[in-house]
Design goal:
- This protein is of the alpha+beta class.
- It is built from 21 helices and 16 strands.
- An eight-stranded antiparallel beta sheet has the order 15-14-13-12-9-11-10-16. A five-stranded antiparallel beta sheet has the order 3-4-6-7-8.
Amino acid sequence: MSGGSCSGAFDWRGFLERWQAEWVPRPGDEEGGESRAVALGRGGASEAAIGAVEERLGVRLPASYREFLAVSDGWYVDQMAGVYQLGGVGEIGWFGDPFDMTSVYEEGLGANPSPEEVLLAGMWRRALRLETDSDMSYALLDPGDVGADGEWALYVYKGWGGELPDRYPSFRAYMEAMYRHFHATRAERADFVNATTREQDARVERARLLALRGRYEEAVPLLEEAFDFGRPHSAVLLQQIRHFSAPRGTEGYGGLVADDRYQAEILPVEAMGPAQGQWRLGGDDHWLGMMAARGVDREVAEAVLGAVRDGTHCYAPSGAWGQAVGEARAAALRGACDVAWRVLRGALALWEQPGPVLIVPLGLLADPVLGPLVTPERGREVLATPRAGESGPAPEPVPDLDPPGLAWLAGPTDGFRSSFGGGYRCVWVEGVEPERLPELVGEEGAVLSAPRRPFDVARSARRAHEREDEGVELWEDRAVVAAGRSEGGWAFAFDGYGPHCMNHLFRSPVTDASGGGRAVVVWCERGRAEAGERPDVFHLSVAEGGVELYGFTLRGAKVERSGAVPEALDPDRLFLAGDAGAGGQVRVLDALHRELGLSLPRFALTQGRLPTFTTRSWTRAPREGEGFAYLGFTRSRSRSRSR
């Protein structure tokens, strides 16, 4: 039973009789342990009485309110902290704006108010007041806010709240909303069972099955109505659908977090908020206290929060779905995020419910490696896929997110983070696994880290002057790189996250890397030629078996070569008129993809988590007679003094 349009006949008598028959006190309102009988309405007003009040007021009342008065001359609404009683024809009258709310709202209109704001500002002096008993609240029918059906909007203003009044498009819409409110405030009573509760519970179950069959869009309006009636499980089912439609949010799932059937899925999701710093007020203790109040063991909650925060949490369901999750994680850890998603998508039908209330693999969102793969489009793809033994048509697959090749590095694309601000540099080694890269180009003792967001790692990495006590020289340029494996059997070590400068001490790591197979190094450095400063720089070097085969470095219009650069990679062909800017970079990146099969996974490098390690220096020690300077700046506040 929903509000809104009042077109067509409405059975006021049947509606009010059902409300009266279902009435029971709210939990805690019983007197002496017994439910007290309450007459919600009164006998209907005659047409003559309704006509008399219209003559007194000087207006004809809107249809839905007239029809209501003819059936019941007033009503006990019983809205908690709001309106309690609606008067009859002998009690209603003009509000008259006794608190001068008109002036308050007119002052807030601004230079370009919306029509809705103008209507609200004028409502106070022209509204008809309906309530006779309330908690400093007012039910106001506005003859100036009239719909296409001739109905007047009804506003409920809670004088103690300070917020804008609630608006209903008609008196009927208001009464239907109050009927739903009546149900919601009594849903916790075990004895509150009637035709309406049974009807709404059947809607919840139908919506649950529809959602599991991939027909979530049909399930949503059923759940929304059941939620308004306060029916069990409607909120948590609706929340799961909304959560997967916008997967970056963090939601709460009430008491389910302490249920052994659901805790492994829900508790890590609940921990995402405090792990991301969203619980600044009260911090971890506040969140842990909330979990304890909901029945979660504190040590369990602390362990899960710590794992989610440091990126070591691992979503590990059982069965065939769990095997697919493990396979997908292995692919994502190498940068193959689209491959990982295809594995998950293909196994969704195998997902099994840990209990009837869970309708999606919720725990997937909290996995630090796989969670970022669930974009809103993919979240809706999950929702549209039949699962848990239910059948139905599969949705059209969401397109892959990673573009082929390397050209995406040269500029902003498709709403992703724009090309790496200060430039980027990368080492590719053919035919090796990422685990071997630290041995080839890493600093002493380097190993792959746990998966982390490379940008965060590099942003917090210490510079050479901060590592002098570890034997790091000021001239050294050691990079924190993300490691993975791209198409064509190339392992990569990528750095695009910190400011670097290719100077005269640059030493390409390509020969060291080629000890494991053919290797390629690319370094692109963004210049500031328009400001009369340094030009764009692009470097390429290729080696095999510890020997550099060829390479070039382009600084603005000046090019330095080594070896026999293949025609397809000749900088004179690719960087027209010495243009080392975006146009030339796109051409050379396309050529590297075409000729050598090089690529990089955009999503993994911009949105995902990859293992990282620290490389050896990309610069060599200054030789005798070579200059080198290191400048450090300290920002401090200066105070002006007056004489």
